[in-house]
Automatic annotation (TrEMBL), chains A, B:
<dbReference type="InterPro" id="IPR050144">
    <property type="entry name" value="AAE_transporter"/>
</dbReference>
<feature type="domain" description="RCK C-terminal">
    <location>
        <begin position="101"/>
        <end position="185"/>
    </location>
</feature>
<dbReference type="InterPro" id="IPR026022">
    <property type="entry name" value="PhoU_dom"/>
</dbReference>
<dbReference type="InterPro" id="IPR006037">
    <property type="entry name" value="RCK_C"/>
</dbReference>
<dbReference type="Pfam" id="PF01895">
    <property type="entry name" value="PhoU"/>
</dbReference>
<dbReference type="InterPro" id="IPR038078">
    <property type="entry name" value="PhoU-like_sf"/>
</dbReference>
<protein>
    <submittedName>
        <fullName>TrkA domain-containing protein</fullName>
    </submittedName>
</protein>
<dbReference type="GO" id="GO:0008324">
    <property type="term" value="F:monoatomic cation transmembrane transporter activity"/>
</dbReference>
<dbReference type="Pfam" id="PF02080">
    <property type="entry name" value="TrkA_C"/>
</dbReference>
<dbReference type="InterPro" id="IPR036721">
    <property type="entry name" value="RCK_C_sf"/>
</dbReference>
<dbReference type="GO" id="GO:0006813">
    <property type="term" value="P:potassium ion transport"/>
</dbReference>
Amino acid sequence: MPSVKDILIEMKDMSELMVDLAYSAVLFNNKAAADEVITLENRLNSMNYEIKKQSLVAARSLEDAEKLTTLLEIAEAAESMGNAAKDLADLTLKGFEPHPVFKMVMEESEKNIVRFKVYENSVLVNNSLGELLLLNRTGMRIISIRRGDSWIYGPDKNTVILAGDVLIAKGSETGTEIIEKLADGEINLEDLGNIEEFIDDD
Amino acid sequence: MPSVKDILIEMKDMSELMVDLAYSAVLFNNKAAADEVITLENRLNSMNYEIKKQSLVAARSLEDAEKLTTLLEIAEAAESMGNAAKDLADLTLKGFEPHPVFKMVMEESEKNIVRFKVYENSVLVNNSLGELLLLNRTGMRIISIRRGDSWIYGPDKNTVILAGDVLIAKGSETGTEIIEKLADGEINLEDLGNIEEFIDDD
């Protein structure tokens, strides 16, 4: 059984990711992002339930109860954020009528979010993010990794990419094409030599 | 009068920032972050009101109305996220009783958010983020800049830092100390020579 601490960290990370994905879903009419939001929302609900259950069992005194209340309020806030994100995702999945302003927002924004799978023959496989330096090389930041049913939020330089991982990355449209080709195994890191250098402070 | 497009982009950016700041406020008991959330929440409310007003004026046909509804739903979702963030900030400002688990979350998280002012004699002044390469040099990412009453969300390599700017940065505790000293004018970029190199794919 995961600890309250682990649940809380995951609820926080999950709700932040959902907010990001949901805006991307609705503004870029990105159904893949919307699907992820729905999956995450279901999980967030179960986690909120779990944290409530564990808190009620843990409370032994009024002082305990006071501390646990804060914890429950954070879980509630995470769920509220998740719900708002779900509303946006639902809009996308229902096939809404996009307002012309979205196209303008999209053109101005350099921060699309993409989701793609890493194939076995990809150069990314079995390398850490620290070794790959994808941000410098492609201008794309890996914000999360879905591995089977589990998630890695905010992966760091030591996180190793495995075949079958689903990466969620944020960045420009040019970067999207490059990183998807790397994940497909279509191109290697050496092929990036002629691509203009990206600045990391984006 | 700002356009609906500009309001929408700002509401999106603002609600994302509020979510980040609010979690930081409650988990790190960071009152400065909580104060920013409250300020942003007031602004978010006025923007939602503005977008509703402009939409009602703009609707000329049922088709118009359908497209405008989506826009209003996005604004509503942004406000819901903002409200959830405000609930967390309120908790911090009321002086809540922190659950011991927060300390554990804090110790595990490498992603505190800090807010600090840039002083006139700082090396950061009148330099662009692209020139400063703060992420590489300090491990801190500048996520937003408050300049007087206006905000720059997701500044890019061309964004120039001015004296008096309030920077919101995300990163490790070590990085926090370094970047605050740079902003105070206590140290220069050359003083960073002996600091271990940071990997940008954090």
